[in-house]
Design brief:
Helix content is 41%, strand content 13%. It contains twelve helices and seven strands. A hairpin with an 8-residue loop joins strand 1 and strand 2.
């Protein structure tokens, strides 16, 4: 292990735990806003901390220090990280890993071996802007997607986070990230702060008001969906209610009908099953698997949307689209049963 820095105690880096924090040398990204440019390149051995020093400290402080945060650089570039973490686990402390998600194979292996208790993964930007934000051409986005999937399907605690820079990020890009990770993920936005050790000068963070607006919009985006309100209506700002109405109107009417059958075909769902006509599944079943057939989706969701609108304009539009869907269903049943 090539360890270039160590903080013996942190109360901030490992949620709900006291921890020791170490920084590994070397990174495969060159994010222009990186505060640790001295960790990016290989070193000739200057300033390297022997891993035994870290292990000895953890042994002495066991009971006072709950865990260790392994940060960087990019820790998963370290060839000896598996054996190093095994030694840490033998001491009996927890392990939190910070990663950029570029090595899903090693990430999965460490999780499957039970060597990691918590992962914080940086999502640099939406996928179309990853190269610019990571400072590297031709980033393998599939690896980033795989790492997200691995964490979301693991049995450990995890979080996603994004350092936001005015010159590199927009609210639309952050909305895309929220779509990637879903509404239930633990997601943190860190505002960029300039410093003398940053890789590229001239960058800026957002103002407090801008950050407040970003948080407000993202919160609305996370809570506008039909599924996210099944267990109870979420409180939204005025702007959030307008966005929610627009999202719901997209799901009904002629375009909504087209979307239902396109999605059903992609997922291999039957168009209609008379044996479960108008069969409305439970909230839990809907969240987990969606509707059983394309036609049943009208009864599970689409025909309920009109009554959920917030604004007068949306209600008026929804009434017209609701009528269109009801007429479509009437025609569908007539043709299905051979009456037309």
């Amino acid at each position: 292990m090539t360890i270039s820095g160590m903080e013996k105690l942190t109360l901030l880096d490992y949620p709900a735990n006291t921890a020791c924090l170490i920084f590994t040398q070397g990174c495969n990204f060159r994010c222009p806003f990186c505060h640790n440019k001295n960790l990016l390149m290989d070193t000739n051995g200057d300033g390297i901390i022997d891993e035994n020093e870290v292990l000895d400290y953890l042994k002495k402080r066991k009971g006072l220090v709950d865990g260790i945060c392994i940060s960087g650089g990019e820790p998963l570039l370290q060839r000896d990280i598996e054996s190093f973490i095994k030694k840490i686990k033998e001491i009996g402390v927890k392990v939190k890993l910070d990663t950029n998600g570029s090595n899903p194979q090693k990430l999965k292996k460490l999780i499957d071996m039970g060597l990691i208790d918590y992962v914080a993964m940086d999502i640099k930007n939406d996928f179309s802007n990853y190269d610019k934000t990571s400072g590297v051409d031709n980033i393998n986005i599939e690896n980033i997607k795989k790492s997200i999937y691995i964490l979301e399907n693991s049995n450990i605690e995890y979080e996603f986070r994004t350092t936001v820079v005015k010159e590199l990020h927009s609210i639309t890009q952050l909305e895309h990230i929220c779509e990637y990770i879903g509404p239930n993920a633990r997601y943190y936005i860190q505002n960029y702060r300039d410093c003398s050790n940053v890789l590229q000068s001239g960058l800026n963070g957002f103002s407090e008001k801008e950050l407040f607006d970003i948080q407000n919009i993202l919160n609305s985006c996370e809570n506008i969906g039909f599924s996210s309100n099944l267990e109870g209506k979420k409180e939204l700002s005025k702007e959030g209610k307008i966005v929610q109405d627009a999202d719901r109107l997209d799901a009904i009417g002629a375009i909504g009908i087209a979307r239902v059958f396109t999605y059903g075909g992609k997922k291999g769902k039957a168009i209609y099953n008379p044996d479960e006509e108008n069969n409305i599944i439970t909230k839990k079943e809907y969240i987990k698997n969606g509707s059983n057939t394309s036609i049943s989706h009208f009864y599970d969701k689409l025909l309920k949307i009109k009554q959920l609108m917030n604004t007068d304009t949306a209600i008026k539009i929804a009434e017209h689209r609701q009528k269109y869907m009801e007429e479509f269903l009437e025609e569908f049943y007539e043709e299905w049963n051979g009456r037309r």
